[in-house]
Amino acid sequence: MSIRDFRLGLTSKALILLCGVLLITLVGLIGFNHDNLKSFFMLGRTQVIENQQYQLQRYYRDVRNRLQGVTQSQAYRFEELEAEQLDAIFDAYWQDLRSNSELPIRSISVIDGQQGLKYEFGYIAHSEKAVEWMLTGADSPENKWLLDCPLTCRLIMATDLQLAEGNEHYRVFYSLDSLRLLELFPASQSSHHFLVELNSDQSVSLLYAESAFKTAIQAIVKQLVAEDIENGVEQMSGQLGLFELHAFRVNNTSHSRPVYYAVVNDISTQVSQLKRADYNNFLFGIAALFFAGAIVVFALSPPFRRVRRTIDNLPLLARSSHNLFRRNLKPNKRRLVQDESDELNHALVRLSYQLEALEQQLKSRAEELEWVANYDSLTDLPNRRKFERMVNQMVEHKRHGCLLMVDLDNFKYVNDISGHGAGDEMLRQVSSSLEKLLPSNTLLARISGDEFAIYLEGTSLIYAEVVAQRIISMLAQVSVPGHNIIHTAAACVGIVAFPEHGNSFEDLMAKADICNNQAKEQGKNCVVSFQAENADSELAKQHYWLDLAQNAIERDSLELVYQPIMNNSQSKVEHYEVLLRVRDEQGQLHSPYQLILAAEKNGQIDKIDLWVVQQALQQMETNLRNGYRDRLAINLSARSFCSEKVISRIAREFVSRNIAGEMIIFEITETAALPNMKQAEEHILRLKSLGCAIALDDFGVGYSSFHSLKQLPFDFLKIDGSFVREILNQNQDRVFIQALVGIANKLGHKTIAEFVESEALNNELISLGVDYSQGYYIGKPASARYFWQFDKASAVLALQGT
After folding, report:
1. pLDDT exceeds cutoff 70 at 771
2. Is 409 in contact with 458 (CB distance < 8 Å)?
3. Which of these, 459, 424, 417, 412, lies nearest to 438 by C-alpha position?
4. DSSP string for residues in 154-192
5. Nearest-5° Cα angle at 208, 202 to 210
6. What CATH number is given to the structural domain containing 147?
7. What is the full DSSP assignment across 317-354?
8. Alpha-carbon separation of residue 790 from 548, 734, 777 (angstroms)
9. What confidence tens digit (pLDDT) does each residue in 517-537 have?
């Protein structure tokens, strides 16, 4: 089992943590107590040693005081005697000392202050240094004794004998056996004394020791070095047991090397007591540790068991077993004192109620989301996602049939003219009509804004065409009231068959879209079935235009041409419309209609419009440098006109090129202005603030041209060519243009007629009051060099003659 898999319960963790803390505390307390006991022990030993040193010094002082007293007590013997008798008196005094004194006196020496050494009695073995000290060095009050060890160690103590009447002063020196003197010292049985000398090689020599322990002390001295004597030894083991050694230097000595008085104290009892105290502390700490652990276990086990029970039951929440979870967490009995484990249980019970409510909401919401993800909220029909899944199932199970794509005609105008409410109502009526017309088991879906898709299982292409015709007939009966108009539904239907025309949903939809486009090109209310022989060319054509729309500028496939527009009152060309052309691989120019459709579909129309504006303004710069001041009219698509970014970019182009706005006319269609009148007015005013003029293109073909004319500040109205071509033959068109010109004149607008292709037509338009004419009669579209590098009049005549 790896470390990651190792599991440790909360109780165990708490116990381990507590035991760790207690163990650290225990070790600290034991160490603290041990240090205290050791400090007390060392303090006691220091006091014992200091007391022993003090007692020894006091002992020597008492011995000397006794000898001084004894010496002074003999003064009466000398007061009535002659000097010649002193020898006999001192001899008698010596004999008396040997008989009656318990002190181990080995000799006495009498020094006359004037005559020097006068008498000596007893065993005389003084070193020269001792004799010199007795003669000269014993006068100091602090130097009243001397340790002398010529053969055996003796302690020489100095006393004074003062005769009152004779005014004579003698110094009496007593030589005492150090060993016997120390034996008389009232020391403890656990202490032993000896005298050592430090040698030059740092070894230690024993000078004397108690006879009863001399062998043991000699063994100790053999283990010692000078450093041990100088610093002391806290603990040593030997024949005397466990002991400590301390030594005091003897300064009053006749030896040339250092002499130390050493004391060995038995510390076995104290060390044993110290160990026993440490052992007792350890036992007490262990007992306290186990006792604390037992208390913790007793106190924490119940709440930890409750926590464990809570953890074991938490998976019930994941399984949505909320009632069982709450029942398992319910306590068997109410406790007087509650803790965090109870609060945790209460919180989890509340959480389980909240989760239960949330799960109900989520379940309901999931059902709603599932419905939203698969159905259209407006028509309640399946959406493209669900339709694709259902068709894929049909394809997977080889359930042949036909797919119909129904695309409403001019649906955008319903929204533009009467608002989205009318458009939504039309969609609802269309979906309801389709549901009534089709069998209940038919797959019917709304796959985009104005497109519906139908899958007829087990039907042939011929039967599908019949159904499509019935759909067109039925939709013609759908009508929706709008703003002062009744909108009638119309549609085009594209049909493909499975598996004849494709083996996947994408393939079938792509070919149905081709059919739909072909139907729209044929006009309203058309049905087109897929023709395999045209499939490749149609798909290739779609791909070609989409690719070209994406890369036309980079490939240098676009070119501008210019068509003159003549001022009828002056019979003079005053401005030119900028027209876009597409150059094919052979270098031929073509209409941009398919390119613009593809660009609008893949979102490239803004880029193309900006390119046209930049190229036109560049041509204007060239014209102005050459002295040409003809105005240029530039078309803007609906998407570009509605884009704030495009309008701002156009404004920056004017500033960067330093071109006056009055040289440019922007042409927009009614469909560009209708979706958002307020925005359209803002953008028109912004362009007019640059000095530009605005023309409404294709005037008359929209549903609300006069409404736009009323709301927006246009400068020119371009009459759609459908009203111009037949005015010589159709009186209605003539009346319409006459009325339109009258309204424009009243509103202060200039009118431009398109598709003027003959002199008679142009003269008729002039008679009706049309201000400007544009068409092949005035001039065909041509490149810039035909108008601004040669004489304009000859160029226009040349174009008219072609």
Report:
1. yes
2. no
3. 459
4. EEEEEEEEEETTTTEEEEEEEEEEHHHHHHTS---TTEE
5. 130
6. 3.30.450.20
7. HHTT-HHHHHHHHS-SS--SS--HHHHHHHHHHHHHHH
8. 33, 37, 20
9. 888 877 778 999 888 665 555
Mean predicted confidence (pLDDT) in 188-204: 80
Q: How far is CA 670 from the centre of its chain?
A: 53
Q: Say if residue 585 is exposed, middle or buried (CB neighbours under 10 Å; 0-12, 13-18, 19+).
A: exposed
Q: 752: part of which helix (H) or strand (E)?
A: strand 750-753
pLDDT of residue 747: 85
Handedness of CA 86, 89, 95, 98 (dihedral sign): negative
Torsion over CA: 74, 75, 76, 78 (sign): positive
Alpha-helix runs per DSSP H in 377-419: 384-396, 411-418
Residue recorded with tokens 């100095």: 158
- Sign for the pseudo-dihedral over CA of 237, 238, 244, 245: negative
Structure tokens at 776: 């092949």
Q: Quick one: CA torsion of 515, 521, 522, 523, rounded to 10 degrees?
A: 110
Q: What is the model's pLDDT at position 617?
A: 94
Which residue range is the domain that position 714 belongs to?
549-801
Q: What percent of the chain has pLDDT over 70?
A: 87
Tokens of residue 462, six digits: 């011929």
Instruction: Give me the residues paired with residue 145 across strands.
Output: 157
Q: Measure the CA–CA gap between 313 and 90, rounded to whole angstroms.
A: 113
Burial 353-373 (b: 16+ CB within 10 A, else e): eebbeeeeeeeeeeeeeeeee
How many Cα atoms within 13 Å fall on the side-chain side of residue 540?
Answer: 5
pTM over 0.70: no
Least confident among 285-294, 544-553, 675-684? 544-553
**What is the domain count for the chain?**
5
Which residue is it, tokens 């292709």? 757
Contact 493, 467 (CB under 8 A): no
Q: Which helix (H) or strand (E) holds 559?
A: strand 558-567
Average pLDDT over residues 657-678: 80
Do 726 and 587 sit in the same domain of this protein? yes
Residues 430 and 388 in one domain: yes
178 with 193, same domain? no
